[in-house]
User: Fold L-aspartate oxidase from Paenibacillus barcinonensis.
Amino acid sequence: MKPQIPQYIHDFDLSALPMVETDVLVIGSGIAGLFTAIKASEQHRVLMITKKSLLESNTRYAQGGIAAVIAEDDSPAYHQQDTLVAGAGLCRSEAVEVLVNEGPEGVRELIRLGTLFDLENGELALTQEGAHSHRRILHANGDATGYEIVRALAVEVHEHPVIDVWDEHFVIDLITDQGECIGALVLKEDGSKVFVRAKATVLCSGGAGQLYRYTTNPDVATADGVAMAYRAGAVVRDMEFIQFHPTSLCYPGAPRFLVSEAVRGEGAYLRNVKGERFMEKYHPQLELAPRDIVARAIVSEMELTNSTFVYLDITHEPPEMVKYRFPTIYETCMRYGLDMTTDWIPVAPAAHYMMGGVKTDLSGESSIPRLFACGEVSSTGVHGANRLASNSLSEAIVFGRRIVERIELLPSLAPSLGRDVKFRSMNNGGAMQQQSKPTSEKRLSLQKMMVRKVGLRRNGKNLQQALDTLQQELAFLDQSLNYREELEYANLLTCAWLVTSGALHREESRGAHYREDFPARDDAMWQKHSLQQREQAIVEEWMS
Assistant:
């Protein structure tokens, strides 16, 4: 039975709240939010809201780089083919074509905005990652590409006269009136609320890694954008496809730190705990096979050897190269007594990237007018069932620019919109009952369940059990939620329902979605998208 998820999760009356007006409201501060804000500021007043700071986002932790056709022996056609293969039959070819053709100019614009990519002999340095046929990955400071991009863009945002930034603010819900998004209800740092009214609202809120106990994502990745958009009535697409990065550090006392795919791109081997290389058993591209294949191969080897990890071995490469190319990874490993140049590094898969999200057109607009989505929160059609490494940063730049071009064509909001919007929750009496267990404990229980039942390998029995549990837990949304911890948990619950129901519905294995009870890919029945919308059953959309 489909749960009754409310449109809003906090009591409010817009006529009684203070109101701030802006042209463009940008929610989130990763590469998508920063770049979109900068482009929008050329013609509009921009308000950017981030629940921590400009430098805290998934982008900051992106090590490998940004994919774009730069080399003379490469071409958009090669990049497009690699992306389509990795996407396992679910990429939208039009969206991929946009990405590969407009990505190089996006990189040049990042450079103009101050991003310092690594150079070799005066030319942009390029590396290769899994499932790429050519060296087309630009990187910065060896393995700190995301941080360098955010650094450069944040400087631009801070110095811009028409971009206002609200740090430590939390967007509770998107507000709609007469079928249009007119802004958002925002929780301020002091606990008060404000209504931000905007001609256009752009979700750049990142992914949902915190659905899982083990993730490469920071604490802020709590699925806020997808959950808010779904509650507002937007269509979300392909939520069952969660990418697990094959190699996160798995060592006592250390966090699940991402060990970039670029390490394998530069020649690292995967070995099981017996010291044996094993990827030849699973794919002809060995360590450079698509991520979903590598991740499942690692799990298989862990089971065969009764271990909780495998090893990543780059000790055969020159130590100077390793230290120069991967300074962040090297220093992090050294902090825990592991020397990449002499030691095999223990790694295991961890939740990494959400391929699905808010469905958009090629201009980044959702099914709700005036509501846009960019970056990991969006489903543009580029990634299909399995994102090609380093395409995500390119996607954010390309579609951020397209969103701003579409916003230029929007008429102003009607003055009457938003005057009479109010909401009262139906079950305020449930608040005390829900507090029988602290929200932090409920969140941890959810994360553990998602690992066990909706993780890297799935089956119908576990998915149904998870769905039954979520059905009960979603009663948490029937009360008016006031605190950030509660709001984040509500968003995680909502997204967990979307992921689990989509995974149970798709009775095949494709890309990052693997069903032990349906292990084969079935194009005849399942080469189609899963669309979910509040108060409606899952709808299937066949590939055109």
User: Anything to note?
Assistant: The first helix runs from residue 31 to 40. Confidence is low (pLDDT under 50) at residues 429-434. The first strand starts at residue 12 and ends at 13. Residues 438-542 form a domain with the Methane Monooxygenase Hydroxylase; Chain G, domain 1 fold (CATH 1.20.58.100).
